[in-house]
Specification:
Elements lengths: L4 H14 L4 H19 L10 H9 L6 H14 L2 H13 L5 H14 L5 H19 L3 H12 L9 H20 L10 H29 L17 H23 L5 H18 L5 H34 L2 H11 L3 H16 L5 H7 L1 H10 L4 H13 L9 H9 L6 H24 L2 H10 L2
Length: 457
């Protein structure tokens, strides 16, 4: 019976999360209840809980995680500075006269916003408010229009700078070192957030290309689903208008990603550059005052507090889970699986995909990855490839009903005539595209590992 406790504990925390109880307290509370029951029955060592203060101080002192509030600040400030509005306006007028033109514009704008903000909620809401009424008025199928907005909004999960990659990089760094220690290695290699940023760049761009191909195929096969903008609405646009929309996000991308790719700054330092750059853009667009700064700071504080509280709760859960022998049980399960490391990787990817239907990416990152990461890395998987695979898989959690956050964001601002069922139907092709991208990366891992090896030999 004792060997089943880790599984029961994992199922219990999933049930508590589904109840709607706050995530951080669900994780920590479940862990403490199981620890108390284990101590009462003599099957859990109370000394394991003495490691909690060290873990809390480790979280507080972690310089990598300082990038989280800075990237959140950058994303929220850019939302307030109307960079997205100007960009979508210029790109929509440029591509609008083409069949599927508005769809192509949304994907390209979503990719640029992903590389400059990385905030899924802000991107989805902004593009929905600015483009969805126009697309519906042009005659776009509601399923295609809503699916496009939701899917492109989630590109911020895989295209750096991404908060998901920051969190994954921190978790995988610890898992990689733990895996090497268990193999008896004392000269430890590391994997950094910068490695994941560089590794995710090519797969992220390929995913954008797959989205573009899908829209081109749909508009060519069934033009009535994605009609061109009427000529009287597609005003002539000059290069000056295009540059005014494109230059601000491109300059910010160059400052943030360029400093990371060239080795001039760490991701945390680049996040500071991005936050300062967002302030400058807001001032340039005349959308910087005390009221806006106060609103941005409050939003940043709320998101940051949520992330760190979940991290603290997840650390406690992981500690108790291991105290019950959960990590050894997972290791034994993976070793006994047919197919060896391939079978184990497939099972983990399937588990994370299914959990994405009911859990958020932060919960999966902090609860599941620390459990399975050390085992998979000890089996010989490349940490950068595994991190990018996990990021792509977690991206689908924003789209999978019933709890996909991108669906909630869009439902909150979509016109009343757009039914929830149409939003759910619209994201299905893009979930399939993301799974295809996962398959491509599984077959060609060099897509994630080649660029980091070239830049950081």
């Amino acid at each position: 019976m004792i060997e089943w406790i880790p599984l029961i504990m994992f199922v219990a925390v999933c049930l508590v999360l589904l109840s709607g109880y706050p995530v951080a307290f669900a994780l920590g509370g479940t862990a403490l209840l199981f620890a108390a029951g284990g101590m009462a029955t003599g099957i859990f060592n109370p000394a394991d809980l003495t490691f909690v203060p060290n873990r809390l101080f480790g979280i507080i002192e972690n310089t990598t995680l300082m990038a989280v509030p800075l990237f959140v600040f950058m994303g929220v400030m850019l939302e307030k500075s109307r960079v997205a509005e100007n960009l979508l306006s210029s790109m929509g007028r440029l591509f609008g006269p083409l069949p599927g033109g508005m769809g192509l514009a949304i994907i390209l704008v979503g990719a640029l916003l992903a590389a400059s903000t990385g905030i899924v909620g802000a991107t989805v809401v902004t593009m929905a408010l600015l483009s969805l009424p126009t697309m519906l008025r042009q005659g776009y199928q509601p399923q295609l229009a809503t699916g496009l907005i939701c899917a492109t909004g989630t590109l911020g999960q895989i295209i750096p700078p991404s908060i998901a990659l920051v969190l994954l990089g921190d978790v995988l760094s610890n898992a990689y070192q733990e895996a090497q220690l268990k193999q008896g290695l004392w000269s430890l290699d590391t994997v950094s957030v910068g490695d994941l940023f560089v590794g995710a760049l090519i797969p992220g761009l390929i995913l954008v290309g797959l989205y573009l191909l899908y829209v081109l195929a749909i508009s060519g096969w069934k033009p009535h689903l994605a009609p061109a903008m009427p000529r009287d609405e597609a005003n002539d646009i000059g290069w000056g208008d295009i540059l005014r929309g494109l230059l601000p996000p491109l300059l910010l991308i160059a400052a943030v990603l360029g400093s990371i790719l060239t080795g001039k700054a760490t991701p945390t330092e680049a996040a500071g550059v991005g936050a300062f750059g967002a302030l400058l853009l807001a001032a340039f667009n005349r959308h910087l005052n005390l009221a806006i700064v106060g609103e941005v700071v409050r939003s940043t504080s709320r998101v940051t507090a949520m992330v760190f509280m979940i991290l603290i709760g997840a650390s406690l859960f992981s500690l108790v889970f291991r105290g019950f022998g959960g990590e050894d049980a997972v290791h034994s399960l993976f070793e006994a699986m047919p197919g060896g490391v391939i079978g184990a990787t497939l099972m983990v990817m399937l588990l994370i995909f299914l959990l994405g239907f009911i859990l958020d990416f932060i919960e999966i990152t902090f609860v599941v990855v620390p459990i399975v990461g050390p085992v998979l890395l000890a089996m010989g998987l490349d940490p950068v490839w595994l991190g990018v695979m996990l990021a792509l898989n977690l991206q689908t959690s924003f789209l999978t009903p019933p709890f996909g956050f991108a669906l909630f964001y869009l439902r909150g601002v979509a016109p009343a005539e757009v039914r929830t069922a149409q939003i759910y139907q619209g994201v299905v092709p893009f979930i399939v595209i993301q799974l295809v991208m996962l398959g491509i990366l599984a077959l060609f891992p060099q897509l994630a590992t080649w660029l980091p090896a070239m830049l950081y030999p």
